């Protein structure tokens, strides 16, 4: 993603009640933050927030947290939220490397990863949000029946991710190399990047991963 330094984005974020910076102090207390016991779904690397905002509007019975590293991107998500009165969406500005410090065991029911940065160099593989190192982090706070859903148009990253699911000891519930021409397309909510790459004719890959508990 091309990043522009959006003037005043840090201040805008600091003044917004929906945003938490890092958020380790809320570990185990996210239901209190939302004021209810509804399930919590997160999107890691949310970007400008189109996807998670659409889900929050469609599902008031679910709480959503969008996680984004950069203030200059997060402010765009906040703009989308300006006229939304629902209290089921929050944002955390942080690097997902510390995500396991932010959520307690079994606190999260669903993880979405959409068009995650590919980090093409081998030496940066651990930074990919679908690396086995990240699956080990997700394992620490995702409910036993929780799912990780990953979409991308980047075939090498997708193939890497399929391997990593297995290496991490997780299972594949399903996967497709062409989501929009598969049965899984029903109910699909497009992300900003998905719209862009679909318009270019790129097929969208998607996998759903889970782990089996003894
Ligand atoms: N999910 C959105 C979509 O599909 O339109 C945005 C995709 S964009 C290619 C990837 C986003 O993930 C960027 O906004 C980037 O800043 C964010 N990101 C990448 N690595 C991250 C990390 N380690 N922690 C938090 N956000 C991250």
How would you explain this protein's 3D organization?
This protein is α/β, with parallel strands linked by helices and 214 residues long. The chain has seven helices and eight strands, in the order H-E-H-E-H-E-H-E-E-H-E-H-E-H-E. An eight-stranded mixed beta sheet has the order 1-4-3-2-5-6-8-7, sandwiched between helices. It is globular. S-adenosylmethionine (SAM) is lined by residues 1, 45-47, 67-70, 73, 95-97, 114-117, 191-194. Residues 1, 45-47, 67-70, 73, 95-97, 114-117, 191-194 line the site of S-adenosylmethionine (SAM).
What are the main properties of this structure?
single chain; 214 residues; alpha/beta; 7 helices; globular; binds S-adenosylmethionine
* Oligomer designation: single chain
Query: What is the overall shape?
Result: globular
Mean pLDDT: 94
Please write the string of helix (H) and strand (E) elements.
Answer: HEHEHEHEEHEHEHE
- The share of residues in helices is 25-40%
**Quantity of strands, as a count:** 8
Strand content: 15-25%
The bound ligands are:
S-adenosylmethionine
> What is the terminal-to-terminal distance?
40 Å
Provide the low-confidence segments as ranges. none
What strand order characterises the main sheet?
1-4-3-2-5-6-8-7
| Count, helices | 7
Radius of gyration: 16 Å
Q: Which class best fits the helix and strand makeup?
A: alpha/beta
Taking the sheet with the most strands, its summary is: 8 strands, mixed
């Amino acid at each position: 993603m091309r990043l522009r330094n959006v003037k005043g984005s840090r201040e805008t974020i600091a003044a917004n009640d929906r945003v938490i910076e890092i958020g380790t102090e809320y570990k185990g207390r996210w239901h209190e933050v939302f004021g209810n016991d509804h399930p919590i779904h997160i999107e890691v690397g949310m970007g400008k927030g189109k996807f998670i905002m659409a889900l929050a509007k469609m599902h008031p019975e679910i709480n959503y947290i969008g996680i984004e590293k950069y203030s200059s991107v997060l402010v765009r998500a906040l703009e989308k939220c300006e006229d939304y009165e629902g209290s089921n969406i929050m944002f955390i500005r942080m690097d997902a490397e510390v995500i396991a410090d932010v959520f307690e065991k079994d606190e999260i029911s669903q993880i979405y990863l959409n068009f995650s940065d590919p980090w093409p160099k081998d030496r940066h593989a651990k930074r990919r949000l679908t690396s086995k190192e990240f699956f080990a982090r997700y394992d620490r706070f995702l409910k036993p029946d929780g799912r990780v859903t990953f979409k991308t148009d980047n075939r090498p990253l997708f193939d890497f991710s399929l391997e990593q699911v297995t290496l991490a000891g997780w299972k594949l519930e399903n996967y497709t190399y062409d989501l929009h021409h598969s049965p899984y397309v029903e109910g699909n909510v497009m992300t900003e990047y998905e719209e862009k790459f679909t318009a270019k004719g790129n097929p969208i890959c998607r996998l759903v991963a889970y782990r089996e508990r003894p």
